[in-house]
Design a protein that fits this description.
Number of helices: 3
Order of helices and strands: EHEEEEEHEEEEH
Structural class: alpha/beta
Radius of gyration: 17 Å
Distance between the termini: 59 Å
Largest sheet: 8 strands, mixed
Number of strands: 10
CATH superfamily: Cytidine Deaminase, domain 2
Low-confidence stretches: 139-148
Strand order of the largest sheet: 9-8-7-6-2-3-1-10
CATH architecture: 3-Layer(aba) Sandwich
Helix content: 10-25%
């Protein structure tokens, strides 16, 4: 797997991870990270992902043909150190592997490279471009409600 250059993670993406992890309690949350213009901006949640109080299993064979920068998962215990299974998984997913834990705020996460070494990951304020999906339907008569 080719190393990807990453400058940091978008604050909104980190907030999504923290909220999803909080909402998943008491089981772990897990996903894969995608990069856009050197910034982690997306979390992929693959079909078949299984979570329990002690682990999360992401079925990498379900990953479409796309690059990922690493992974993210929660440790409901609050221990942000990777386990042995985490280290094996990190070696398969990339160089930016995030573990989050209670209280699920911007200080309660750690990032590790593919070998399990701690690495810094900046939190960046990024303005996301509106993809205009909702706007696509505003001007289309086919999708307008029938009104008397």
């Amino acid at each position: 797997m080719r190393a990807r250059k990453v400058r940091g993670i978008a604050r909104d993406t980190l907030q999504f991870i923290l909220e999803a992890s909080r909402s998943s309690l008491p089981v772990e949350f897990a996903g894969l990270l995608q990069v856009d213009k050197e910034i982690i901006t997306e979390v992929l949640i693959l079909p078949g992902t299984e979570s329990s109080r002690m682990s999360a299993l992401i079925r990498l064979y379900m990953l479409p043909n796309m690059a990922v920068a690493g992974s993210v998962h929660s440790h409901p215990s609050g221990d942000l150190r990777p386990s042995e299974p985490d280290l094996i998984f990190f070696s398969r997913t990339g160089d930016y592997n995030i573990i989050v834990g209670p209280p699920f705020d911007e200080q309660s996460f750690a990032c590790y490279d593919g070998a399990g070494r701690r690495r810094d990951l900046a939190i960046l304020d990024v303005e996301f471009k509106d993809d205009g999906f909702d706007d696509d339907f505003d001007d289309d008569d086919e999708f307008k409600e029938d009104r008397p």
